[in-house]
Write a structure and sequence with these properties.
Layout: E1 5-11, E2 22-25, H1 40-50, E3 55-61, H2 73-84
Parallel strand pairs: 1-3, 2-3
Amino acid sequence: MEITREVIPVYAGDPPPDSWAAALFLAGPTPRSPDVASWRPQAVEKLQTQWKGPGRLVVFVPERPEGGMPHGWLDQVRWEDACLHLFRHGRVLGAP
């Protein structure tokens, strides 16, 4: 059985897929001016060409494909909060 390798970008406001093998949230500065290009489209492209892991990599992109957050600040915060809570960190108490 061949393992499918794919990268699925999930843009601000979009629902996540039902499952994935790995996930990444592209946190960082978002351009405040339409005259400044976002760095995220290039990051998604690089991930799509370089992903070698088994299964599906979901990339949470906290802006729309066309740039910005047109759905409003409060909805953006809700979306980010929901996406970030999808992650589980297996922290061991007492570990450095």
